[in-house]
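anyone else get weird line breaks when pasting these?? whatever heres mine. first is seq + tokens for prot A
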Amino acid sequence: MKKAEIKITVELDENNLPENILWESTDSANKEALPVKSFNLSLWDHNYKNTLTIGLWTKDMPVDEMKRFFYETLQTMGDSFLRATGETNIVEDLRDYCAHFADKMEIKQ
């Protein structure tokens, strides 16, 4: 069986606020850790039937980039949901909401 490891390193300041976030993967062409400003991780716990989540961002993440990050996250969640379930009608509704979100947040598409 093939295995891959994803590693996320969070460097905290004296107040435990994320200052730097680095990620790397054994399955990536890039072999060094790459800096990012934010990440969301969601895991499904089959035993307890609930979602475990971590959402972190660096203290210098610009608000306009955070808005775009959430917009793109919602879009890609729709893509994943469509691939997993084939539920096109609800994904179209999510796309409509994403367009509304982008408009309200003044995100240029």
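and prot B, same format (seq, then tokens)
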Amino acid sequence: MSTLRVSVVTPDGPVLEEDFNMVSAKAESGELGILPGHIPMVAPLTISAVRLKGDGDSQRVAVNGGFLEVRPDKVTILAQSAERPSDIDVERARKAKERAERRLKDKQADIDFHRAEMALKRAINRLEVYNNNF
């Protein structure tokens, strides 16, 4: 079966560079399923899990926005941040989730609600990726 070379890169450096049979990612326009030979495209990503399927295994990577570039034999994800499940600090993610929920619940005038919502989405995404892999 043919494969795609998948690279996940952040400003801090590469997170993943492996071959997979399929990539599923959530773009701003909706869910994308990418197989080898896919037409070239570029799409902005949402805060979500990127699912990678290989021969007999699957992996998830928590991606916090960025862009997906697809070529027939390669997928490159340029993300603001990305973490494999083994790299996720679960306690830190739980605290970030609680802090964001508190800020949204308090509804104080000096709170940046959009920033708090994004922090909550990032924390939930990290926890879901961690929990679905362990």
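btw re prot B: The chain has a mean pLDDT of 91. The longest strand covers residues 58-71.
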